[in-house]
């Protein structure tokens, strides 16, 4: 070697040799490093797999289990080692195997997907599972799938519970408006086929409101329960009695061979309701105004029948109540005059400065800090005085008027709250929450409208929260996304009152759930409500959503809510809605003690508008959208 190196011609050869040796050595080191890195990655991957809180099963292309993690045992009662080598489908309940196999196949085709399936449990019950199938791709080839199983039993239980609540009235346990609308639709379809008639009896109580105000809600509730029980005695099992609103009921007689049968039922209702109800030793008398509409062989539209029964009920009211009326064509004129007049007046209301906003504080339950306000529209009607939205929003929603109204609210609210910000009366997080009607949300240029108003009013989008209903949000997830891109927060209003699936919340990407006040009202009386509110709070936490619980009226409800974990709250306990002018005084201290804001007057001095003749609400539509 020495000689070789000394030879002049050999020097480059030696260098080459050395270089090659170094190269081999370095490569060797690199390969070693690569292997070690790979090994580390493998271990990382392995611990993710082994310790994942969800059950994860690796399945090969033939559907055989290759590996399973520890969480699988918790879910199925089977040890991971016992699963290896067995078909994955063995784990799945028989009735849903086809559907599950299809999900696996989709993943083998390279597409990740999530389905709901069922897995039998060791004790025989069935767990409802959310199954995500993820393709395992090696060298661009799908070599198997990861099956990720998540227990969805609790969520599904809540979904069913909510669905049940969404279809029933908690006070009387009767079907509610949505379920009634559905039954009516089906009854009409069936009857058209069979050739006989369906009768709809619309019942509105007389003198209920004064009793409820004077004797209190507990007595009012008892009367409503008693009336429900009496109504049920008038009908057959196949018929439906529903509670449609505060003191409004509807009765569906599935099969009548003539009007006479419907009239007999109405007579009995009038007589039964007028007989006094005794609560705590005291007698109370209410009455029933009943409107009857009977389908003809050509009646297809449930809305039409509702409209007719509604008009007939108004007629009974106008004549002093405690009686029934049968629909006749002449009644059309009265009803259309009424809503038409209100619509025309509402159109002019903006120009005439008759609209106003009231604001209700939204408060952090544990420290009473005011975090924002909800804007609620009021209309001071030239003849009827201040009106609640329930009197005119439905009329505005029947036409494009609602869009104008919502725009006015947004514009006005942004300006008023901006002034509070400019005066330094609120902190950085203080927000304005505004309601949006579903009809407005559906408009194609809706998001642009919002962004125009924000620009025009120089309002910080981060301070705006828009309240939409579950049905409108579910209908257009893209719009929710675009709103969020503007920097606006999106809340689901009246959460829990009208939908069937919770899984959509995950995809929807909203920020806030506003739990409907009906849950709070039933907190004391109904243990199911406690469970529901608790689950909603847990669910919201899991999905990283904020919660605002509406309708807190007393300390007891507040304490109960705090026991459940607390959240943001809104309700009469922290103050009824107040006009913009009074807001500064209330929020400037930053906090609000429960019960510290005096009630301005029952219902804030506002009323529902009565059409001529003392009828409580304007005729409305309620079959559509059910
Ligand atoms: P919402 O958005 O769920 O508003 C809450 C309603 O509950 C308000 O009634 C509020 O005054 C009432 N409330 C608040 N705390 C309590 C409480 O502790 N107990 C009770 N019993 N009620 C409480 P309001 O102002 O009559 O509004 C009714 C509905 O009208 C609103 O329900 C909303 O859906 C609609 N609305 C109100 N303002 C607007 C608006 O500017 N635009 C649109 N599109 N809809 C509006
Ligand atoms: Mg609202
Ligand atoms: Mg609400």
Keywords:
626 residues, alpha/beta, Beta-Lactamase, Alpha-Beta Plaits, 4 domains, 8-stranded mixed β-barrel, 23% strand, binds ligand C2E, binds magnesium ion
Q: What does this molecule look like?
A:
- The strands form four sheets. Strands 13-14-16-17-18-19-20-21 form an eight-stranded mixed β-barrel, surrounded by five helices. A five-stranded antiparallel beta sheet has the order 2-1-5-4-3, sandwiched between helices.
- It is built from 23 helices and 22 strands.
- α9 (217-234) packs antiparallel against α10 and α14 (401-422) packs parallel to α16.
- Helix content is 46%, strand content 23%.
- α22 links the parallel β20 (546-550) and β21.
- The protein has four domains: 2-49, no CATH class; 52-151, PAS domain (Beta-Lactamase, 2-Layer Sandwich), CATH 3.30.450.20; 158-328, Alpha-Beta Plaits, CATH 3.30.70; 340-599, EAL domain (TIM Barrel), CATH 3.20.20.450.
- The protein starts with a helix and ends in a 39-residue tail after the last helix.
- With 626 residues, the chain is of the alpha/beta class.
- One magnesium ion (MG) binds at residues 374, 435, 467, 493.
CATH superfamily of the largest domain: EAL domain
- Could you say which small molecules are bound to this protein? ligand C2E, magnesium ion
Residue ranges: pLDDT <50 for 5 or more in a row?
601-605, 608-626
**Structural class per helix/strand content?**
alpha/beta
Summed up, the helix count is: 23
What proportion of the residues is helical, as a percent range? 40-55%
Radius of gyration, taken over Cα atoms and rounded to an integer in Å: 33 Å
Count of extended strands: 22
Query: What is the overall shape?
Result: globular
Mean pLDDT: 85
Largest sheet: 8 strands, mixed, barrel
For the largest beta sheet, what order do the strands appear in spatially?
13-14-16-17-18-19-20-21
Assembly level: single chain
User: Separation of termini?
Assistant: 96 Å
| Proportion of beta-strand residues | 15-25%
Provide the CATH top-level class of the largest domain.
Alpha Beta
User: Would you give the CATH topology of the largest domain?
Assistant: TIM Barrel
Number of domains: 4
């Amino acid at each position: 070697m020495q000689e070789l190196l000394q030879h002049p011609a050999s020097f480059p050869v030696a260098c080459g040799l050395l270089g090659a040796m170094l190269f081999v050595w370095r490569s060797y080191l690199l390969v070693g490093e690569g292997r070690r890195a790979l090994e580390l990655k493998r271990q990382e991957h392995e611990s993710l797999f082994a310790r994942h809180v969800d059950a994860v099963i690796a399945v090969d292309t033939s559907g055989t289990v290759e590996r399973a993690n520890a969480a699988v045992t918790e879910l199925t009662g089977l040890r991971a080692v016992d699963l290896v080598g067995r078909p994955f489908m063995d784990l799945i309940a028989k009735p849903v195997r086809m559907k599950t196999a299809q999900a696996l196949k989709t993943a083998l085709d390279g597409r990740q997907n999530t389905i709901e399936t069922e897995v039998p449990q060791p004790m025989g019950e069935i767990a409802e599972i959310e199954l995500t199938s993820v393709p395992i791709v090696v060298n661009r080839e799908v070599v198997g799938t990861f099956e990720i199983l998540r227990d969805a039993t609790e969520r599904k239980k809540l979904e069913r519970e909510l669905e049940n609540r969404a279809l029933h009235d908690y006070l009387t346990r009767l079907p509610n408006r949505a379920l009634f609308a559905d039954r009516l639709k089906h009854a009409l379809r069936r009857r058209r086929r069979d050739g006989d008639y369906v009768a709809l009896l619309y019942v509105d109580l007389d003198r209920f409101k004064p009793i409820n105000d004077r004797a209190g809600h507990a007595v009012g509730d008892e009367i409503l329960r008693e009336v429900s029980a009496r109504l049920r005695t008038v009908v057959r099992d196949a018929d439906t009695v529903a509670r449609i609103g505060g003191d409004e009921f509807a009765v569906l007689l599935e099969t009548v061979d003539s009007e006479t049968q419907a009239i007999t039922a109405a007579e009995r209702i009038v007589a039964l309701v007028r007989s006094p109800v005794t609560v705590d030793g005291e007698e109370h008398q209410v009455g029933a105004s009943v409107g009857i509409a009977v389908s003809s062989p050509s009646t297809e539209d449930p809305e039409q029948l509702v409209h007719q029964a509604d008009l007939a009920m108004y007629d009974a009211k106008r004549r002093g109540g405690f009686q029934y009326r049968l629909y006749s064509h002449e009644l059309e004129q009265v009803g259309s005059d009424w809503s038409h007049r209100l619509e025309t007046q509402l159109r002019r209301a903006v120009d005439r400065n008759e609209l106003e906003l009231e604001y209700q504080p939204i408060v952090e339950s544990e420290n009473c800090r005011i975090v924002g306000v909800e804007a609620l529209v009021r209309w001071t009607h030239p003849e009827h005085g201040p009106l609640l939205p329930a009197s005119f929003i439905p009329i505005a929603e029947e036409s494009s008027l609602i869009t104008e109204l919502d725009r006015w609210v947004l514009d006005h609210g942004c300006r008023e709250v901006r002034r509070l910000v400019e005066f330094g009366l609120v902190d950085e997080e203080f927000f304005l929450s505004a309601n949006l009607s579903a009809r407005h949300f559906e408009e194609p240029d809706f998001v642009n409208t919002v962004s125009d108003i924000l620009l025009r009013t120089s309002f910080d989008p981060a301070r705006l929260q828009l309240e939409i209903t579950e049905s409108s949000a579910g209908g257009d997830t893209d719009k929710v996304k675009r709103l969020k891109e503007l920097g606006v927060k999106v809340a689901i209003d009246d959460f829990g009152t009208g939908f069937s699936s919770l899984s959509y919340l995950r995809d929807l990407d909203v920020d806030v759930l506003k739990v409907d006040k009906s849950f709070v009202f039933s907190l004391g009386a109904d243990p199911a409500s406690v469970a529901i509110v608790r689950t909603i709070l847990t669910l919201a936490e899991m999905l990283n959503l904020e919660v605002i619980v509406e309708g807190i009226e007393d300390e007891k409800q507040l304490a109960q809510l705090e026991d459940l974990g607390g959240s943001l709250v809104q309700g009469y306990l922290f103050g009824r809605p107040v006009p913009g002018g009074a807001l500064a005084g209330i929020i400037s201290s930053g906090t609000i003690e429960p019960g510290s804001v005096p009630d301005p007057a029952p219902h804030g001095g506002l009323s529902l508008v009565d059409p001529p003749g003392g009828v409580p609400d304007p005729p409305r539509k309620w079959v559509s959208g059910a």
